[in-house]
Amino acid sequence: MTKVIDMERKVSKFGNSLGITMTDALKQLGLEAGDSVQIDVREKDGEIVIRKLTKVNLPTGLSPDFLETLNEVIHVYDDTLKGLKDR
């Protein structure tokens, strides 16, 4: 997989919405029309991070609410968890 180093795009109007095109970058992640992504807006850093989502079948007894809460905790403490990994 080749990494896109520097992509510059202009914000365009698509109907009543604003958006950008980045087909090559999405293809590099293996994304296709209809795939789900997670979008994190990091206003403080002026960044928008797009992550490819993969569907997971939950083990018996594990509720979607638990995974949602776990995801929120990981998101809130992301930097702290990364710091612990390097110890």
Key words describing this protein structure:
87 residues; alpha+beta; two-stranded antiparallel ribbon; 4 strands
Structural account:
The protein is of the alpha+beta class. Helix content is 31%, strand content 21%. It has three helices and four strands; from the N terminus they run ββαββαα. The strands form two sheets. It has a two-stranded antiparallel ribbon. Strands 3-4 form a two-stranded antiparallel sheet. It is extended and about 45 Å long. The two termini are 30 Å apart. 0% of the residues are buried.
Tell me the β content.
15-25%
Largest sheet: 2 strands, antiparallel
Say how many strands there are: 4
Strand arrangement, major sheet: 1-2
* H and E string: EEHEEHH
Q: What spatial form do the alpha-carbon principal axes imply?
A: extended
Number of helices: 3
Please render the helix and strand layout as text.
Layout (H helix, E strand, L loop, with lengths): L11 E3 L2 E3 L3 H6 L8 E6 L4 E6 L11 H13 L1 H8 L2
Antiparallel strand pairs: 1-2, 3-4
Give a quick summary of the entry.
This protein is of the alpha+beta class and 87 residues long.
